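Entry 14: structure prediction run for Transcriptional regulatory protein KdpE. Input pasted below.
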Amino acid sequence: MTRVLVVDDEPQIVRALVINLRARGYRVDAAEDGAKALAAAAARHPDVVVLDLGLPDMDGLEVIRGLRGWTRVPIIVLSARHASDEKVDALDAGADDYVTKPFGMDELLARLRAAVRRAEPVAADTDDAVVNTADFTVDLAAKRVGRGGTDVRLTPTEWHLLEVLVRNPGRLVSQQQLLKEVWGPSYRTETNYLRVYMAQLRRKLEPDPARPRYFVTEPGMGYRFEG
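Run finished. Output tokens:
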């Protein structure tokens, strides 16, 4: 069973999420502040975290950074902050998705399912399971990236974006196709997600992120992986 950690200091929201998630077969843990959330994540190892940013003891961004220090668990931010820069900050800190309050339960559950799917291993279906470049190696079967003899830590969303690109070497992958494949059909206009995550991939894998060699932008159209 999928285990969900709900982090929110509003009892009515926690109660609604717990009831709806348990009714759909999820195991649910809850925490009302950042310290308890980090402790619960370390003790219970959830499969996905639903996180409010406005916590009483620390900003939710600190919780994201704390989690990202040791785990790749999908993180869905649930927040009343609507500004675009707030969303970018959360994504840049390592969140996988952002849902604004008030929210529809069906939409949140759909995004939660999508986040869990992105984190699941995908069996290799071709003989070309390993992609080698001069600077890094992508093992599609093992879902591992190596650079300079060490593993590169990617979040589930970073991995899924990388996987779509490297499975289409030399081909232009449109912004809309990437958004649909990585986040889902309801995300076709969220181009800021792509900007943030492509910047993160470049920081982790490109020898010179400011002059990308492997992850090339086609302005106004999409991205291309040049192996």
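Notes: The longest helix spans residues 105-119. Will compare against the previous run tomorrow.
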